[in-house]
Every structure is written in C-alpha cells, then in structure tokens.
Amino acid sequence: MAGRTVRLFAGLTLAAVVCLLNIGEVAGDCTFAVDQVGSAGCVNYDLSALANPKGFNISDEVTPRTSYLINVCGNIDPSVLPSVCQLNPPAPAYQVYEGIRCPYLGLLDSKKTYPVNADNSSAGVRVVYFNGDNSTGDDELHSLLDYGTAAIGDPEQNKPPKRVLRSDASDPFPHRAVIIDLFCDPSAGVGQPEEAFEWPMAVYRIKWRSAHACPASTSTTACPAAAFEATWASLAFRPRPQWFDDVKFGIFIHWGLFSVPSYRSEWYWRMLRTGNADVVNFHNRVYGCSGVQPEKYPCTGEKFTYAEFPSLFHAELFNPDEWATLFKNSGAKYVVLTSKHHEGWCNFPSEQHWNWNSMDVGPNRDLVGELSDSVRAAGLHMGLYHSLREWYNPIFLQDNANSCNTTNFVDEILIPTLKDMTTRYKPEVIWADGASGDNPCSRDSVKYWKAPEFLSWLYNESPVKNSVLVNSRWGTGSGGDYSTGPDRYTPGKKVSSKWESCFTIQAHSWGFDRTEGIENFFNATALIYQLVDTVSCNGNLLLNIGPTADGRVVPAFQERLLEMGKWLAVNGDAIYGTTPWKFQNDTSAKRIWYTQSKMTGDVYAISFDWPESVNGHPGDIVLSQVKNAPPTVSVQLLGMEGALTVKQSVDGLHITVPDVDTIHLPTQHAWVFAIRGLP
Prior knowledge:
- The chain starts with a strand and ends with a strand.
- It has a 9-stranded mixed β-sheet, with no helix packed on it. Strands 17-16-15-14-13-20-19-18 form an 8-stranded parallel β-sheet.
- The protein is α/β, with parallel strands linked by helices.
C-alpha cells in the first residue's frame, strides 16, 4: 500500500468500493486561519463553497475497485455509503478494500491547519485531521511515518507493515491522519480533488486546486500558531517549502580533513584506525607512522596521526566566488556543503569542537560562512550536511558504552552545534547523516538523537523556520521533509513522496580520491541521464563533488558540471518547475523519459537517442505512451524554432526530427521535445 496513488473518477457504480473521508465535526463550519508568513497577522480561508454532502469521488488507479469520498466541511450523507461501512462509527477516514471490508481507521479527534506552502501563506491551506492520542508512544508511529532509508531505499523489499483489515471498532493504527492540501488556483472554480495517495500507511494525503482555496481575507491580528510538537507524528504535518520541489538539481560537496590524503574514501580515518592494510601502509609510507597495530604494520620514523592532518589542510586556493560561479553555470539551484563529517572536524568555528575546526587550526578560515555568502550572492539556495555521530568523540563513545542511558553527546555537543550553525548560517537544507554507532541503541532517532526536539525548534523558532528542509537520515523511525534513500538511489519509477538521489561524479568516493583515473568519472551524458531519470520519477538530484585540500575543484568535475549547465540552458524547461507526467518513461524506447510543466501543462519527452535517417530522409521518434493525441497537438524541439511534423499512429505519436546532423543540434547528450495541447 506504500505510495498508493488515486485520481478523480466520474462516479460510483454498484460494484464500486467506497471510502469515506468525513471531515469536520461541525457542519457548516468551514473557515480556517493560518499564520501570515513574515508577519504577525493571519490569512483567513472560507472553504464552505466546497461542502458537498454527497462527497467528491476519487478512485484508485492501482486498485480500481477502491475509491474515496471527500467532504471538507461536514458529514457524508450515509445513504451513499456501502452497508459494510455502517458497522463503524463516523470518522474522517474509512477505507473499503475489495468490496467486502471497511477497515476502521478510527476517530480523528484533533485538527490543525497550516499554510500549504511553508514560505507563502496565500498559496492555500493544509487541513490536517489526526488522532491526537500519543499515549502509546512513538514505537508504532515509526512503522507508519517512516520516510527514511528503509522505506524509500528499496520499495520492492522494504514494504510497510501489512495492513490489518478490520470492520470492528478496534484501533489497529494508533497514529493516523488525513491531510488535505488545498491550493489557491483562481482559474479552477470549485475544482476537484486531483489526486490522493496513502503514504505512509494510514496517512492519507489529498491534493485539491480550487478558486475557493484562495485567501478570503488577511488581517494584522495575530492568530495562534499551529506549533509543531517534538514528535514525528506532529512534524509529519509540516508543509514542505515549495522551492525545493521546483529546483530539481543541487551540488553536494564533501570536503574536510579526509581531503588531505584524498586516498580511497572520505572514510580514511575509519579505515586507518580499523587496520585496513592498504590505507595503513599508505599512511605510514607517505605521512609517517600512524601507530596503528605496530606489530602488524611495523614503521620506523616520525609519528604522524590523523589528528595532525590540520597542519596540511590549508585551503590556500579556495575561492568561494569561483565555486559559486561554477555551481551557477552548472544549472544547479542549491548547494549542500559538508559542515562536519563523521570525523567530527567542523568547517566552521564551533565552541563544541575547540581546536578541531577550520577557524582554530588548518585554514584558519570560516569555510562554511564564506561559501554560504558566495552561494547566496549567486542566487542559489545554501544547505549544510551535518553528521550526527563522531567516530572517536569520547563523549559519544561513552554514551554507547552506557547503552545510551546517557545522552551527553547529543545534549552537550550535537544539538548546541546544530542550533548555533542554523542561527549563524541560516541554511535552507540541513542534511543529516551518520545516525548510527557501535551500539544499536545509538541509532534511535527519538530516544538517543532527540531529532524531534531539534526539529520542533527548527520549524517553530529558528530564523529559517519557513524555508528550511531536512532529509530523512535522523535515525531509525525518522521522518523528514523529503526522503533520502541509500546512496546513489535510482528507483526507475515514480515515488509518490518527494525524494532526493545523492549521486557522485567520481564513481567510488564522495571525498576526492586522487588514485582514480578519468575512467572512474561518470561522463556528462550519464549524469544528465541520472538527472532526467530522477526528476521524471519525482526526485531531486544532489550531485557530489570532492574538492582538494588546497581548495580546488579539479577539471574533471568542472567539465562535467559545465556540460550539464550547457544542456540545462537549452532544456531547463523540461526540468525546473516540472512534475511527473502520468508515464515516466516510454515502454518501447526505454531511453525516453517524460516530465510535465506545472505552469503550462506542456509535456516533455526527453530522448537519449537520435533516430537514424531512412533512405536519406529524417527518421522518426516514436512516443508509444502518447495515444490519441488531438489533431491540434504541436511538438517543438527545444532550442530550435518552429513546429515539427507529427503523426498519430496506433503505435504512438511519430515525430519527424529535423534533417540536420546531430553535431549541429542545439545540445548534445539528449534532446527534448515539447508537446503542447495534450489533454
């Protein structure tokens, strides 16, 4: 059931199975108020025009016999319900499965409202009905609100707990919610619920565009804020800032003390301490005696441990303006820099990391602050990666030895550092990682890492509360504004919830590895393919580079990024501000992917193959997923003027490509056909 998507259908038949979302305990009361972003006032909404006792119908594409009824403002007329649902008391959410069951999803006795867009109150209103009883704790919630690696990393193997289908009044799901996102669209009239999906299990999310979801009024009078509590249940209702959905492409930067050896991996210290033969022998030969397992790796000469690497980390060629210009020219719209990796070294001054940060020793510079200023000056969003754990911090190790009965590392080091970093640099992404330790107890997002406590502060009080996003790597059972799967995650099919693929240019390492040749760098075509594949499936691509210890981005990285920028300069309309189309790729031509503009509705077919000419005549691109196109449909190759010749056939839409050599086309790598006029 994870990620189930449902869309509007014309009406119910006798065989149809009905689900009820009976929303609102007080009939006729359909007014809502949310905080005015950036002001002490309120934005008021009146949704009474959307009331419909017969309900608005939505059917499930995956399971056609399952459907839903939506009434935002009051009760559903009982006469439209199947008899099986009469066994349950009224509640805001019912589901009927295969026509014989109506599982009880319980009385959702709490309600909260938020702006549908965290950085724009006037964009619409999010109405949340949920079970406010948290007396059972968060353990059950973890299986229901798991946006983390286990849920997203492998959809085929990591399925959510099997639904318990019941028609009695028992409560198999102590944490449930119905989330209705009503978007302001002045041209939509009443509109209809456009789509809904169940993600995670027992949490139903509905989207609805309507002219009646526009503000009825605004006022300067303060209204009570719908504060986010320090529970994953409450944090899950936080609207995601819209900017992240639109930008699609970001740059990830792994830079730290590991950049000094630039050997094998950013896990150099871990491999050194655990006795990796290759790394220990390299270190002893190049830098001096590491002191690691001297009986196994004898070494004569001066001692040189990992803790002495700051003396070699100078960043003397680091020019943050040059980096920011490169990122902007790559077409990226956001940047995520390593503020601290698992080694514990901070690229900014930190009271909690005295003498183990870039200001106190090494470069004697605030690397985070300098790059943040340059990135924002270039018009890009700035984010920060931050490892939760620190491999060899004695306080962290002691917490692990105490079976996490103490949380001194979290209380004294981690959370103060995160709050200071957030207040000082105002990142718009906080990219958590490393929520694991030698003891399994130190993987728990709530009991050990106290992630909900920090995030409730972040969303309620921090200077970036309306614009910041966090990923999903905060420990077991964690949530987040978007899902981060395993490294280099590529599902190849649409994922209903927003997700991000972190991917490397250098094939085997995140930090720069100077042992690898050019054959270990993905070429521009492969990286553009990864971007297109990701965006068409509802993801963002966060593409990693590893700078050198002296502060350079080596030419192999630069060349790939600039090639991507050239391609995006012509074809960006098919990437930025798009949404997945009803099909993600073509059945007959797997190297064709689709996206759709949220603004114009244009569909983009992105082909990584160019057809060969036939008997001296231009060949055709065949889009097998485009069926029954109206005669008025038009197709344009982005970067070229004029419409192309098209013909609708049984096997799909045929597009005759321009009669030119590919070297003379506007771009290389892939070609984008904008299809206008599809229903």
